[in-house]
Amino acid sequence: MHRLQAFREMRARVPQKAFNWLVSFNSSRCIHSLPFATVNVEEISGSQPAEVHNLVQGKWTGSSKWNTILDPLNGESFIKVAEIDETGIQPFVESLSKCPKHGLHNPFKEPERFVFPNLLYLMLGDVSVKAAHMLSQPKVSDFFTRLIQRVSPKSYQQALGEVFVTRKFLENFCGDQVRFLARSFAVPGNHLGQQSHGFRWPYGPVTIITPFNFPLEIPLLQLMGALYMGNKPVLKVDSKVSIVMEQMLRLLHDCGLPVEDVDFINADGKTMNKLLLEANPRMTLFTGSSRVADKLAVDLKGRIKLEDAGFDWKILGPDVKEVDYIAWVCDQDAYACSGQKCSAQSMLFMHENWSKSSLLRQMNDLAARRKLEDLTVGPVLTVSFLTFFGVVTEYKDNQIPMVLDALERMHAHLTAAVVSNDQLFLQARLAEVIGKSVNGTTYAGLRARTTGAPQNHWFGPAGDPRGAGIGTPEAIKLVWSCHREIIYDFGPLPQKWETPAST
């Protein structure tokens, strides 16, 4: 009765419009049942379109221009994105300009919000703890899995795998693990009182540009890496899928991430290019097509790290075994996510022994069972990401040099696989193949594959000084920090020191 009376008194004081809004808001929150969510995945449709906003200088904002995103499965206009045009980039330019070159925090800097710099490292570790815990909850995990499916159609298991890897990454950087990324070293000097110390140093204002095919995993891992090292990032995700990261940012804020530490922009390529030129970020991480990557490298005068598309090869050794398993892995590498992975199997070199097996028939059968109903195959969102051209070729023992020559002539060295457990082949050929190739993530052995970017190993290209990695402490330090050396030289001076002759 007391609660009913309190409700009636509140109702009498609240104007009708405000009361209607309050009821709508509360019922919406109950429907969403997640403290951070502003959308209901199942209700997003042409009649109830979702909205995606921008975040700049700690405030969520709309835009005078709304870009309509079509549902990739039925063509309905089901998401409205507040896109910034060239006239609206100034707040983002100003936001980046407020971040000094020495970053939001570093091993020496005392941020205004904290008394000691270590507290900011600890704060980010705590955010990772809470965000990982949130993603471990089935309700939250299912929310992001289904949201990924709505904008980048892939099977539930593939989308769930993306959420799982994101959670495991966050778990890896809980507690003290963030400050361990800033671990320094000391080297004895030439005399008493002299020591040189090496530190990992942030770039300060940075930008992150990521594609559509992994709308949660790629932007989240790179964003957190940038923050861990002390940078202030502006994040741009392909507008077709940016709703996923918008919701993830709201989750991070709910877990304690300061709202002013990250800016989030929706814009087309031309507008983003103008923002980069005017804001002049100290470093940009770009994941996407090689053509755009090369243009940005010129525009930004080399201040860029790239994880561009791969032309990814696989070599099957002479030992024909576990044909069912090898066929399944080849199908997953080629066609999972409809082949729209930068690590998708692009070329298969098959030892002649495999031509006598059922491998090719099984690969054909496995591909044929994929269907739209369960999203094991889906619509093509960007043609440039279709990296599997059905290239399967056969080689003989004496043709390994020709295979190596083909590998040498490829240009995008992301992932690779050498599939064999034959000890003679491995001893005689594996070292030769690996020693004469440069792919940054290379699997070897019977269970080797080309796809898969888990949180426990480096994922990224090699052979290019602009190459960016993802997932590991080494990747984070390489991409999001630089080396700084500080030499302490306190003396004392030698006794009876005198000014020497000029040299």
Automatic annotation (TrEMBL):
<dbReference type="InterPro" id="IPR044638">
    <property type="entry name" value="ALDH7A1-like"/>
</dbReference>
<feature type="domain" description="Aldehyde dehydrogenase">
    <location>
        <begin position="142"/>
        <end position="381"/>
    </location>
</feature>
<dbReference type="InterPro" id="IPR015590">
    <property type="entry name" value="Aldehyde_DH_dom"/>
</dbReference>
<dbReference type="InterPro" id="IPR016160">
    <property type="entry name" value="Ald_DH_CS_CYS"/>
</dbReference>
<dbReference type="InterPro" id="IPR016161">
    <property type="entry name" value="Ald_DH/histidinol_DH"/>
</dbReference>
<dbReference type="GO" id="GO:0010133">
    <property type="term" value="P:L-proline catabolic process to L-glutamate"/>
</dbReference>
<dbReference type="GO" id="GO:0004029">
    <property type="term" value="F:aldehyde dehydrogenase (NAD+) activity"/>
</dbReference>
<dbReference type="InterPro" id="IPR016162">
    <property type="entry name" value="Ald_DH_N"/>
</dbReference>
<keyword id="KW-0560">Oxidoreductase</keyword>
<protein>
    <recommendedName>
        <fullName>Aldehyde dehydrogenase domain-containing protein</fullName>
    </recommendedName>
</protein>
<dbReference type="GO" id="GO:0003842">
    <property type="term" value="F:L-glutamate gamma-semialdehyde dehydrogenase activity"/>
</dbReference>
<comment type="similarity">
    <text>Belongs to the aldehyde dehydrogenase family.</text>
</comment>
<dbReference type="Pfam" id="PF00171">
    <property type="entry name" value="Aldedh"/>
</dbReference>
<keyword id="KW-0520">NAD</keyword>
<dbReference type="GO" id="GO:0005739">
    <property type="term" value="C:mitochondrion"/>
</dbReference>
